[in-house]
Amino acid sequence: MSIIIVLWGFLLISLMAIGGYFMFRKFLKSLPKEDGKSILDWEAHYVEETKHLWSENEKALLEELVSPVPELFRDVARQKIASKIGEVALEKQENSISQETVIEGYILATPKRDHKFLRKKLKQKGIAVTPYEHLFSLSMSDYRENWQESYKK
Fold first, then answer.
1. pTM for the whole structure
2. Could you list the residue ranges that cross the membrane (predicted)?
């Protein structure tokens, strides 16, 4: 009986730690930066500014690209990726969001580990990946720099 209580205690502590980690990340994103806006403020700004530029095809493509994300985190991923797509569209001063802009924004908003799925999905749809190769190096990396050195210590 005491083993069950100990295991239950470890489970509760683990779940609280995981929840605390995600809450702390959200808290850090909500802190204002030098310009007075937080990361979440900028995401909402880009989504709101480009809401009218989205067509049904591009919305469907975005939904297809975020489909492998677990449902619990899908809204957050969709918001982040849509904001990056909106930022790219505003930088290009586009009148409507195109398929190319969706792909470019997705590449820039996602870590390198997600690019394998994107390449596979683009191949299935018959879309060439070569015009976007230069963007894959600009996206977020999976690891911090010199992680191997820290690991050896």
1. 0.74
2. 6-24
